[in-house]
Design brief:
With 541 residues, the protein is of the alpha+beta class. The protein has helices at 2-5, 13-25, 167-181, 203-211, 238-244, 285-295, 323-330, 475-487; strands spanning 41-48, 67-69, 74-76, 82-86, 91-95, 101-102, 114-117, 143-147, 153-159, 188-191, 217-219, 249-253, 256-260, 264-266, 279-281, 303-307, 336-340, 347-351, 363-367, 397-404, 407-414, 423-426, 430-431, 440-445, 453-458, 465-466, 468-473, 500-508, 516-525, 531-540. 48% of the residues are buried. Residues 1-15 have low confidence and may be disordered.
Length: 541
């Protein structure tokens, strides 16, 4: 049965061509032997939904080589598009969207690629509703796909924590970010967890707001998206599953493979006293089994992008040791990338053997800026929206991932700022010429990394000077904290304490510059070859 149904094995883009040919000549295939559904097993098919109604008709052929999973095992459909997978009474079956195809999309632009099998529904007693009883398993669990054109060059909108705690904060999100993102030329978008702030009743209004962007949207579960009254980790995502489906899954676009991984492990509500902090970062055995099984069928040279909430590396206490297991799984691949959020800071890390990644070049892990910034804190601007500057000194915002085959680059976008706003320059407005050589200049490059080159010069006759990267709190953020604290709570909810920035550079002004008003210019080139610049004026006395 394994050989017939293809429960393991490789799959390349050639399989898509074969599947398309199959839709044209499926009548030439011999009639297959019927599959018997045995207790504890689900059978079904993946098919070309020619009329778009989501139900398989007699003239709608099955698609070969498509991955289907129960969250642990991965089956590849046979020549007739059929699969067979084990199930229990708490199983979500899902199809891995293959390159060149799309799944049904809800009115909120959420992909519908799964079937929930919970005959008795979610456990009783949850404050936020879970999954209603689904009843007996259908005789066939089928997944509809429709062909779509997918260029190897495409863009992805990447959100960190949106995390609204009420409808007012969804309004902040809508006016501060979503209105700016509408119309972006992107294939799809992702939110890297903490979709909401502990209130799962906000899932639906949040989804309706993000749907206005107009592209399919893939969610990641975060620690603030859990049922905190669940008794264990297995029951903590019941409300999430009701709205979004499985918390660990995968999908493909062009030659890229996206792994969405639930890396939040909840300790249960049976703690005394119960605590929303009773969680840790980590992977369960089911998730690791799914990743191994799926990656076994992914060509080694194609891009693999891992999407999760809690970072697998970075400053304590956020990262978790088990992240090494994911990096080890990716180590034999030359083209990999991973994203997290959670910290409400932004940083980029290049991980090598010390972190568990044994690939020929370091693995890039991006901890994405939060859309909510510092939890929608800080003074409100003239539009009534908190500035929400993050404690690392970066503004709230999002990123655009640009993919070209197996290559990629990333660009940060600050909320309601021009695309050129990529740094802040901290320097005095007036300096005595004799003191200039000892005067410090600090530059926060919001999406900088230890691979960034940052330079500055003062005036027209100065040459470019290379700045050094330092790890300390952003001085602009420290001033912002002090200024808002002095103005009092009427200005807005207070910001969190500063944290050391991983994207800060330091230099000093040149010695004995001539008196006058000079332009201080700063330029930076990132690991992707993108160059950004900024300037400010300094009076030399």
């Amino acid at each position: 049965m394994k050989a017939e149904l293809g429960e393991a094995g490789g799959w390349t883009t050639r399989a898509l061509v074969a599947a398309l040919l199959l839709t044209a000549c499926h009548t030439l295939l011999p009639e297959p032997e019927p599959l018997a559904r045995e207790p504890g097993w689900a059978i079904g098919s993946v098919f070309h939904d020619r009329d778009g109604d989501g139900a398989r008709g007699a003239d709608e052929p099955g698609l070969a080589g498509v991955a289907v999973s129960n969250g642990r095992e991965v089956a590849r459909t046979d020549a007739w598009g059929r699969y067979r997978l084990s199930v229990d009474d708490d199983t979500i079956l899902f199809v891995v969207k293959p390159s060149g195809w799309r799944t049904p999309i809800s009115s909120e632009r959420l992909p519908r690629f799964y079937y929930i099998h919970k005959p008795a529904g979610s456990p009783p007693g949850l404050h936020f509703p879970g999954v209603a009883p689904t009843g007996p398993l259908p005789d066939s669990v089928d997944f509809a796909l429709v062909p779509q054109v997918e260029d190897e060059r495409f863009r992805v909108i990447v959100f960190g924590d949106t995390q609204p705690y009420d409808l007012e904060q969804i309004d902040y999100l809508s006016r501060d970010v979503i209105a700016e993102v509408i119309g972006t030329d992107a294939a799809f978008g992702v939110t890297l967890g903490d979709l909401v702030g502990n209130d799962m009743a906000l899932f639906e209004p949040l989804n309706r707001a993000i749907a206005r962007i107009g592209v399919p949207w893939y969610p990641v579960i975060g620690n603030h998206d859990l049922n905190f009254d669940a008794h264990d980790d297995a029951g903590s995502d019941e409300s999430y599953e009701r709205v979004y489906g499985p918390s660990t899954y995968a999908f493909e676009y062009a030659r890229a493979h996206f792994l969405v991984i639930d890396d939040v492990v909840y300790g249960g509500a049976d703690r005394d006293p119960p605590s929303m902090q009773n969680y840790r970062g980590g992977f369960g055995e089911d998730q690791l089994a799914f990743l191994r099984a799926y990656l076994a069928g992914v060509p080694r040279d194609e891009l693999v992008v891992a999407l999760m909430h809690i970072p697998i590396a970075g400053p304590p206490p956020f990262a978790f040791e088990q992240g090494r297991e994911l990096l080890e799984l990716l180590s034999d691949r030359p083209n990999t990338l991973s994203f997290s959020a959670h910290t409400h800071m932004q940083y980029q890390l290049f991980l090598g053997p010390e972190a568990g990644f044994q690939g020929p070049a370091p693995h890039l892990h991006v901890n994405q800026a939060a859309v909510a910034g510092s939890w929608w804190l800080g003074a409100k601007d003239e539009l009534g929206i908190p500035h929400a500057t993050m404690r690392c000194g970066a503004p709230n915002g999002w990123s655009i991932l640009e993919v070209d085959g197996s290559r990629f680059r990333l660009r940060f976008q600050a909320a309601r700022r021009p695309a050129s706003h990529q740094m802040s320059i901290f320097a005095p407005s007036e300096v005595a010429s004799a003191q200039a050589g000892a005067t410090e200049v600090l530059v926060d490059v919001f999406a900088g990394s230890d691979r960034s080159r940052v330079e500055m010069k003062l005036g027209d006759t100065d040459s470019w000077h290379l700045l050094e990267r330092v790890e300390r709190p952003d001085p602009f953020y420290l001033e912002l904290l002090a200024r808002e604290a002095a103005l009092g709570p009427a200005l807005g909810r207070p910001l969190p304490p500063a944290a050391p920035s991983l994207h800060l550079w330091r230099g000093t002004l040149p010695a004995s510059p001539p008196p006058g008003t000079h332009t201080l210019e700063v330029r930076t080139t990132d690991v992707f070859g993108q160059r950004f610049s900024d300037r400010r004026l300094i009076r030399i006395e």
